[in-house]
Amino acid sequence: MSYPTPSTPAWAGLPAAWRPAVERTEAAGEGAAGGVWLLTDLDTELRFREGLLWIAAGRLWWAAEPQATPVSWPIEAGLALWMSDHNGVAALELVREARDGASAERLAVWRYTLGRQVPARRLMERFEALRDAAGRPVTVPDAAALQCPVCHAPMEPEDDECAVCAQVVHTPPSTLTLLRLWRFARPYRWQLLAGFLLTLAATAATLVPPYLTIPLMDDVLIPYQSGQPIDVARVGWLLGGLLGAALLAWGLGWAKTYILALVSERIGADLRTTTYEHLLGLSLEYFGNRRTGDLMARIGSETDRINIFLSLHLLDFATDVIMIGMTAVILFSISPTLALATLLPLPLIAWLIHVVRDRLRTGFEKIDRVWAEVTSVLADTIPGIRVVKAFAQEGREAERFREANRHNLAVNDRLNRLWSLFSPTVSLLTEIGLLVVWGFGIWLVARGSVTVGVLTAFLAYIGRFYTRLDSMSRIVSVTQKAAAGAKRIFDILDHVSSVPEPAQPVPLPAVQGRIEVRGVTFRYGNRSVIQGLDLDVRPGEMIGLVGHSGSGKSTLVNLICRFYDVAEGQILVDGVDIRQLRVADYRRHIGLVLQEPFLFFGTIAENIAYGRPDATREEIIAAARAAHAHDFILRLPQGYDSLVGERGQGLSGGERQRISIARALLIDPRILILDEATSSVDTETEKEIQKALDNLVRGRTTIAIAHRLSTLRRADRLVVMDKGRKVEEGSHDELMARQGAYWRLYQAQARQAEAERELLKD
């Protein structure tokens, strides 16, 4: 058995600094088994430090530094690799499994961030394959350690699923995925039928001219060389037939191209619209695991690729199939013997197409994913250009883009090497087939089996036959590109929202604003965020949520807004479980003011009226006045018609916040959510925003999260959260008197404020 060395493609991604460590094991006679390795990026104390873990000839090797002497363990029965992760930090543990009454023994542990999970999983699979080949005995698991039954990774009792098994797996696209586009083509089926019939007629018209060359050669030109006069009338009819066939083919070709182009554009538009609408209906959980650039590439470039395939290449493919079929029938009707000689290269060409198609379909999906990396760099950098410039990181971002572009180039180069060999090979085979027909045809003419006119027509047909065959082979490339794009589109359309609409929604005519949180538990993946929380908010009451970062405050707000659904328990509004309400109907009664207000590109008035596009100018101005935004809006060049840049560029943080408050006021919600609404502004601006908030919260059920505890003194009650649980509840004075968790938070903030004042004095 031969093994790749660090110079082989399997080790191409291994940094050069680490290759000597692997080469030293090879020098000792240990072959590098399959190039399976993991470059860890954390040490045992969770500091960023690289280390290399790899498999070599039946042993698991570890080097803490490139120049360190590696240590190793034999991969044998009784050893296991356990995989786990917690809060973004993953671990691989090498353990000797429990048996004969002894508990499991941990031999080593390696830690890394979740970005290294894919190579870690690959190394673990290789380890298990080698261990199983050595004969794995039946073991008795440690009762205290729960394991995934599939991959044996450690799990906590509260885990719903194994984090390792839940990783996304990229499956190669199938050409059959294109058949799913019929869902979008069905409304245009009659136009497609008309286009198909026109294609059939146009193809038939193009096959007429070669057939007319038979009488031109055998009945006109060859007899003329023998001394017979030319029949001018017959020549005129034959030439007229050639001209008529050409004009008919042109007209039919124009009509079918125009009709099918119109249909394909509408199919593409419907596909984009449906995908975008479905995307808007998905929960925040979906967007938390996706990059903006990738989603933009799917809806934009992928649908364009499918569009081009439907409007151009699918039409060409249909024409090629019809042309080849009709030509084959005509060839066999003219001379079955010559036709059989024509078809000799077909089996080899078909085999080549089959082999190349399988490689292309995986290659093009990889290209799509790599291109999404390029667009993701742009989607990250352009909106954050102020941060890039502020920290003088233009060179770093340019290098990120250059690296993504280099990766894209490398993937494309690998696929182009395959395609550059395939296409000329098909052309060579068709040329050889044409030579066979020439040689065999001359031999038949010499024997008198066929006439020169028949051979001439046959060669004209065979030229078209091989041209179309070569064209069909080239369509393999665009077909696989379209299949890869269709798969990425249907990956979105097949995703079901984790916040589903109820099957039988309960009507919600009016909302009083009572909120009941009963035994609510929620997890992000396998990480518990809220545990058994109970809370009762009366109509018109203002509740303040306080606690350290990560205590679950924002998660609770997200659950009340139903951006996520609870794992256990229920949330009720006016006695109705919010999962029984239509999502849009329920959210119309919620006003949301975030820490970082988001404004769209457009006018001030359009941004204020975002929740109520039909609002009058008087209503917009009234909301702006209540939000203390009217005065600064009038100072803008065009007032309420002034354009704000993307994400509110050109306005200060306080101005953006007051516009977002006006936006919430305009919809007149019964439930109001304030998530750190004043945490990112100065003291003077905070006073202005606080005046606006006083108008906003009046008469509404309000749940407020505030960084500064002093801003929550107006709250009717304060709820102190810690590690997803409610630990204290009461008014500011009551909680201060208890000297518990809230008192400690307040004292810590007071000391910090005092220290800041001392610094200002100095």
From TrEMBL:
Superkingdom field: Bacteria
ABC transporter domain boundaries: 515-748
Membrane-spanning intervals of the chain: 190-212, 232-252, 308-332, 338-356, 421-444, 450-467
Subcellular location: Cell membrane
SUPFAM superfamilies per the UniProt record, alphabetical: ABC transporter transmembrane region (SSF90123), P-loop containing nucleoside triphosphate hydrolases (SSF52540)
Topology in the lipid bilayer: Multi-pass membrane protein
Keywords: ATP-binding, Cell membrane, Membrane, Nucleotide-binding, Transmembrane, Transmembrane helix, Transport
Boundaries of every ABC transmembrane type-1 domain copy: 193-481
Gene Ontology molecular functions: ABC-type oligopeptide transporter activity; ATP binding; ATP hydrolysis activity
Family matches, as PROSITE patterns: ABC_TM1F, ABC_TRANSPORTER_1, ABC_TRANSPORTER_2
Family matches, as InterPro entries: AAA+_ATPase (IPR003593), ABC1_TM_dom (IPR011527), ABC1_TM_sf (IPR036640), ABC_transporter-like_ATP-bd (IPR003439), ABC_transporter-like_CS (IPR017871), P-loop_NTPase (IPR027417), Type_1_exporter (IPR039421)
Matching PANTHER family: ATP-BINDING CASSETTE SUB-FAMILY B MEMBER 10, MITOCHONDRIAL (PTHR43394:SF1), ATP-DEPENDENT PERMEASE MDL1, MITOCHONDRIAL (PTHR43394)
Protein name stated in the entry: ABC transporter
Organism for this UniProt entry: Tepidimonas fonticaldi
